[in-house]
Every structure is written in C-alpha cells, then in structure tokens.
Design a protein that fits this description.
2 domains; Heat Shock Protein 90; 21% helix; 209 residues; two-stranded antiparallel ribbon; elongated; 15% strand
Length: 209
C-alpha cells in the first residue's frame, strides 16, 4: 500500500473495530470489508460502497410481502404493514433516556424519485453489519445467533407497558422487509449508530431479489 515504515496506521472493520492479533480470526472473514486508516476515528473522504451477498429465504421470492397481508381476514392490511415498520422504531428507541421521536411521512412528490413512505426515529441506530443482517429475510431480531450481530443487539423486552410502546405491535409478525415490499418496490435504510460518526445506508429492491 506504499506505507512508509515510520507511518502509523490501523486496519478496522466498517464498524470501526480495530483489527488486532487477538481478534483477527474473529473479525476477518471472507467477504468482509476493511478500512485502512491513519487513525480509528479518521473521517472518510468519500462514501464507500459494499455489495451484500446472501441467499434470500424462498419466501422472499414466493410471497415477497403479499401472502400474510392478503390473508388479513377482510381487514385493510395497510395499517398492519405500517405497524411492522413502526415496530422497528419502537424497538430502536426503547432505551432512549430522553424523548422517543418517531415520524411517519407520506411523500407524494418526486423528491425520492417516486412516492414513498418514510419512518424516521431517534433510536440507537444500526451498524453496517446490523444493516446487513436486517437484509436477511426471516432472521428474527430476537433469535440471531453465531456470526450474526443482531440488528437490535442488547435489546431487552421492556416491563409490561401499553402494547403501543413496547415493540410488540406487529400484527402478523412477518417483519419489516415484508411490510416494505407490501407497500412498495424498494427499501432504503439510513442509520447512524449513536456512538459512531459514520452514517450507513442500505438499499434493497425487488429487482435485486
């Protein structure tokens, strides 16, 4: 890399975890993206791009957000699809020490290229690895194991509170991805972990699947 012998540098994951001799085998695996930086908190000069490869669950292809909602027993399924998305925000903000802010915006102009639904919250945020795992269909936020870093790491169900506040409002339990693909053709997740300076963005579309 043309690094002088007297020059300091670090190698980190995209979550800014420094690669050391002790954690090398744990953090450095096939397909992982690494940063070569002068310091662990160095600002990136430009955006980096990483392609996420995974084998979609067959239900993603067969049902793709429709099956459970069409089986909604004659009820209008759209509120339940929105509830799935709000459920994610309730979980992300469950440990906020201050105000929990969750906004739903219906965008009918061309600011996003086409009409869109935006759910915005001030929760803990997700790392790039957590966003990656969110993309994996039907990998429950409560049961991710092994190599997976949960998209709600450390989440603990709150003490009994009204269902509207405890991240259990999802009606069909099918998760945000099916809700997204019931409402539209693609999803864009933008997240900044609370303790990080980096902003991570994930884009998924039916065309990719």
């Amino acid at each position: 890399f043309g690094i002088a012998s007297d020059e300091n540098f670090v190698i980190t994951t995209t979550n800014r975890k420094e690669i050391t001799e002790d954690n090398f085998s744990e953090l450095v695996q096939d397909g992982v993206t690494l940063y070569l930086l002068q310091s662990i908190d160095q600002m990136l000069l430009l955006a980096t791009r990483e392609r996420i490869n995974f084998l979609p669950h067959y239900d993603t292809l067969v049902k793709s957000g429709m099956y459970e909602y069409y089986a909604s027993e004659g009820q209008n399924p759209l509120p339940f699809a929105l509830a799935e998305l709000i459920d994610n925000s309730l979980s992300a903000t469950s440990r906020n020490t201050g105000i929990r802010s969750i906004e739903i915006k219906l965008l009918f102009d061309d600011s996003q290229g086409k009409p869109a639904v935006a759910v915005i919250d001030n929760g803990s945020g997700m790392t790039s690895k957590q966003l990656n795992n969110w993309a994996v269909y039907r990998l429950s936020k409560f049961t991710r194991q092994g190599d997976f870093e949960s998209d709600h790491s450390g989440y603990v169900r709150p003490l009994p509170v009204p269902r509207s506040l405890n991240s259990d409002i999802s009606y069909f339990g099918v998760g945000g991805k099916q809700a997204v693909f019931f409402v539209g053709q693609s999803a864009r997740m933008i997240s900044k972990p609370a303790a990080s300076q980096d902003v991570h963005e994930l884009v998924l579309s039916k065309e990719d699947f």
